[in-house]
């Protein structure tokens, strides 16, 4: 896959992730859209393949961070937030064991 195709794919992936992560939050959706577009425009004239690969890696890391670490919160009272985790963030709770057993 060419670098231009990788950049375009990353751009689209970041916007899709933004729409999932900040669903129903117009202010956050708009801020993320502006930031993504700003970052891509500021590096539009980059020609060094090494630098482009580095920027693609940073963008991929940001997408992963957004997808796996961001939880929406909704103000319900003056000092209260209601957390709205996405289904893909909810994982099975593995019970803690004080006395681990050795594998055979």
TrEMBL record:
Looking up PANTHER family in the UniProt record yields: COMPLEX III ASSEMBLY FACTOR LYRM7 (PTHR46749)
Query: What's the protein called, per UniProt?
Result: Complex III assembly factor LYRM7
**InterPro entries named in the record:** Complex1_LYR_dom, Complex1_LYR_LYRM7, MZM1/LYRM7
Task: Relate the assembly described in the record.
Answer: Interacts with UQCRFS1.
A GO MF label: protein folding chaperone
User: A Pfam family in this protein?
Assistant: Complex1_LYR
Q: What is its main location?
A: mitochondrion
Give the Complex 1 LYR protein domain ranges: 6-60
Domain of life where this protein originates: Eukaryota
Briefly, what is this protein's role?
Answer: Assembly factor required for Rieske Fe-S protein UQCRFS1 incorporation into the cytochrome b-c1 (CIII) complex. Functions as a chaperone, binding to this subunit within the mitochondrial matrix and stabilizing it prior to its translocation and insertion into the late CIII dimeric intermediate within the mitochondrial inner membrane.
Alphabetically sorted, this entry's keywords are: Chaperone, Mitochondrion
Please give the organism. Answer: Ursus americanus (American black bear)
GO cellular component: a single term: mitochondrial matrix
Q: Give its localization.
A: Mitochondrion matrix
Family to which this protein belongs: Belongs to the complex I LYR family.
Query: What's an example GO BP annotation here?
Result: mitochondrial respiratory chain complex III assembly
Which CDD domains does the record cross-reference, listed alphabetically? Answer: Complex1_LYR_LYRM7
